[in-house]
Amino acid sequence: MANYAMLGKWHVHAPGYAKDAMRFGGTCKAVWDPDAKVAEDWAKELGCDAYSDLDALLAREDIDCVLVGTPTSMHYEVIMKVIAAGKHIFTEKTLAPTVKECEEIAAAIREKGLLFEISYPQRTWPSVLYAKQIIESGVLGKISIGRFRNAHGGASANWLPAYWYEKKDACGGAMMDLGCHPMYIAAYLFGMPKRISSMYNILTGHGVDDNAVNTIEFENKAIAIVETSFVTPISPWAFEIYGTKGYLCATDHQVRITTPETRKYTNDMVPVKNLPKPLDNPLENFIKAVDGKAEIQFGLDDAIDLARLLENAYISDEKGITVNI
Length: 325
Prior knowledge:
Strand content: 15-25%
Helix content: 25-40%
Distance between the termini: 42 Å
Radius of gyration: 20 Å
Largest sheet: 9 strands, mixed
Order of helices and strands: EHEHEHEHEHEHEHHEEEEEEEHHE
């Protein structure tokens, strides 16, 4: 049974991860947060030990792995300490703000032979798995355009925590947070990116982007439009893929398709009824992997791929240029 520690309660998903890991068979031994009061209150809730000294927690031999929920700006410093202590690592996205930091983390993890998994939950969803299969089958022809959208109204409806808008901690706004999901899905489906152009703005007066769009050209000449927002009150999770022979549309997990075969009997979009089974939740997969019961699903290469897109996306917006990747 995997014994884990929670590192940081900053991320909005950290409390959920702490409880989910128990549900997946892990045992929470300790929590750490730079704020001693936060750590103490959290430890009481979870029934474990509290630490405001990270080194002291990492010195414990009964902890197999950690779940990282610190500010993104702290990921590099914290994770490098975890690696030195020889603990396996599960982290919220993104791994680090720059590719250089990610590559240094990856090299250290590989040298130590540790397990690493990043939280890419939407890569486990049946609609995304189906899209990958159908693209690789060639049924849609040569892929030309994809549109990927994930948005909510957290800023405009004022339900995100105030610290979510601190750029020095979050290292970005909507695209660095919610936009990670359509970014990593686009990369998974379309492959190696070639260049990126971004346009971000701030509608609510906070210090980070809350309305953002990227246009990405991939090596296979497919173009992805990646959209995210903190100012959209109603927005289905959705993606569309256009090919030279067909079209696929996924909206809130309902998938429809048109291909040369379907157009033999209808000009309408055809619902896809038999989607693949979902993969394990990334955290569940990680706990199983620590216990020796599974292989890592989303590892270091996946984490670096996302960081490469995000780093260049923000450079593109800040400088007003198209960035060659």
